[in-house]
Queue: 2 jobs
Job 1
Amino acid sequence: MRVVIVGGGPAGYVAAIRASQLGLNVTLIEEDKYLGGTCLHRGCIPTKVLLHSASLLRAVKVSKEFGLTGVNDPSLDLTKVQERKRSVVRKLALGIEGLMKKRGVEVIHGRARLCGLHKLEVDGSVYEFDKIILATGSRAAAPAVFGVDGEQVVTSDHLLNLEKIPQSMIVVGAGAVGMELASFYSTLGTKITIVDMADRLLPLEDEEISAEMQRVCRKSGWKTYLGVKINKVEKGDEVTLYGENLDPEGIKAEILLVAAGRRANLEDLGLESVGLQVNRQGRLEVDSFYRTAVEDIYAVGDIIPSPQLAHMASHEAILAVEHIAGLRKEAEESCFCPAATYSYPEVASVGLTEAEAKKRGLDIVVGKFPLAALGKAAILGESAGFYKVVARAEDHLLLGVHIIGVQASELISEATIALKKKATLEDLAATIHAHPALAESCHEAVEHALGTPLNFMPRESRK
């Protein structure tokens, strides 16, 4: 069976690896020169390289508090950081190429377009296939009102290659991308202003997470304007942003970052040649096995109605390939996809928020543990944030976990496994956690939800 995969990002190249493992004849088509997709070249990896450098700078700035001497006026050389970023990205891209060779995956670089059932055209050459997986990913959305020019008004793609630290920046979008890049440049000394149409920061997260992030941002000197409808952008010596719920004279900054979501890459893919149509959100509808409405055509990753996250895309790719190979006869029983925002502080979550659980009519119990009461957090000098659990009241089944604080992105994996295995609060309470460790915050939050907090005394609710 010949399987063609269009797109070499976290969905596409993972699909190719799994298909090769299962003995399928695999061809991977990628338009860019290198494999890895947006995640590797313009998203997950490069942003985290920058953020790690920023975290080191923060650590050095407070190093005297930890007994270090001889460190005076530390600063960050953005040009060198960019050089390291490119080095990391290139190394990982070559690693993916090596995997394709070792797995015997045929890789074709070029623009792919469907030209009928079981046929695909790549730069003039036509290829036939038995099954195809579309994994073309997404790109930064840039509404016309902003007039993106790559200099004064930029997307994350532009900002990741900037080698000059701006004095001030307006960030439109308080989601993961906006908050991460705002955190990076704030650490470098850029004056940050956050603007979003939602009524809170990180609007997809639990409301208490948003409130804590708002507190931290205010403490860091950030300005935030929420519930904003943007009307106009003017360029001059500075960028001026106008809109409802903003100052009448507008707000100004040296540079404006548009971080207003992502758009699926489905244009000029030849969908009409096979009768496929996108939904109102500009994505392809699929069933529980990731099959589109057209037989033998699958779609995964950012082009379908699921969280636009690299790890979700890889997971979907594996399930799609296993269905093609005949290994998966039943749909996945449950899928718990963790989300992580690598801002300062980090945020991570999985499962239902408190508000979502209540909206479903569930009777719930909630437990929360502040990192300020945790020994390991005190050792690290990182006391901001908390660990929160949401569980069903009748049987204490875990429903959701929400973390804000140091290494939240690492801590969320335990919660994801617990949700997948249908763990209860009692299961987690009976699990011994190493001491001192940040993971103890899970145990402590669970004990609070059970009404038996150990290492802190929660405030009584005001009547």
Job 2
Amino acid sequence: MSSVQVLPDDEHNRELLANVHPEDWPLVKPEGRYNLVVIGAGPAGLVAALGAAGSGAKVALIEKHLLGGDCLNMGCVPSKAVIRAAHAAHAVKSAAAFGVHAGDVTVDFGAAMGRMRKIRADISHHDSAERMKSEGIDVFIGAGKFIGSNTVAVNGVFLEFSRAVIATGARAMVPPIPGLRETGVRTNETLFELTELPPRFIVIGAGPIGGEMAQSFARLGSEVTLIDMADRVLPREEPDASAIIQAQFVKDGVQLVLGAKVLRFEMDGDDRVTVVDRGNGVERYAADEILLAIGRQPNMEHLGLEAAGVKVHKHGIEVNDYLQTSNGAIYACGDVASKYQFTHSADHMARIVIRHALFFGRAKASKLVIPWATYTSPEVSHVGLSHTEAAKRSDLTAFTVSMGDTDRGRADGETEGYCRIYADSSGKIYGATIVAEHAGDLLAEVTLAMTHGLTLGKIASTIHPYPTQSEVIFKVASEWNRARLTPSVKRWMKWLLSMRR
């Protein structure tokens, strides 16, 4: 039996463990100095290790838990599989609006979670220890710790390096709320162990993770209560986006308890009770399961950072614009060193590290154009300046088109949402928010434009296929074009055309 367990103990999770935490992995005997030692085998660490090894570097990769990190094992992959199951259930239940009558809908939660575990196991081959070994990387399954400025100890052996990367990621934030342990509150690390749908489900935290799971479990059949200190869901998104998602949550049957401070958790018989205060006295909410999703904190403990001369602050490891720590030979990237805690940003930060650590790079982390998406239904995606940041700029204008103004949005019955782009008079794009069923996919066009300096004028001159929801971006660009037709320009054009009659 492996010292690391992933529950439930079934064929899919056994396959997962065989790939990402093999029990009988042989102890590697290092020979000579490594070009790069990577601590942490999540998205950032894997990209750094594979990229360096592919460039010819001698690389060591250290992971104490599961290769693939949170994203594969307890984050992006399992959550999106659950969301997809919830999407399917909702589609069948709402099919009558399209003239399709499906009758009673039954959700087999156990089968949905089994599908999730199979998908996760299948994907795990890409992140496996065997695959890393096949790429020429020395893999160490154990806890790495710096014992000097250029040495890491793991499993009783010492790895000397020219450069090192800390990519240890982050974990769910668990504040010292009374009764938390006694009531068995779950985080994303244990949520996907469930094999039976909880009849009553409480989610603490209405941010991306909490919002996605609250809506999904409601659509799968749980009675869901969503609790947050903020006065609206997705409080970091712009108010218009938040309002659309909040209204959909209510339609899906999610009970919202907002502006609430969690005081404690209690057991009342078999009930797990969350005690909150909204300013009008104590309120109690009972459930069969509770999910805590109030944020994340960097994994910086027990790494021997002081011995390596690596400085930290409360938000993670301190790095410069080249992702270099206070020890010039050691870099850090991904969730442990960035406020952008996304797999895709970790990937691109790791690429910056490779360039600087091994070669003569010029890339800066501050130059990355980082999009993000929350996979509620509809989705919310964003890139660049926020609405509050854009509002402070007198040179920027917000151009907005509703998804209901696209023919495909109407045909799909997906009219709730919009595309809003902040641009200046030249058409340069500074930020965007999209609310749509496929907002994460739609945002890529805007991100491409921002990354490479393409203007709204360029988008307006690009043919978009009809009918698609991507036309909403074309329509926003066309709105910018029409805004250029000032009264004086219109008068001049009218005069010119009268002369040509």
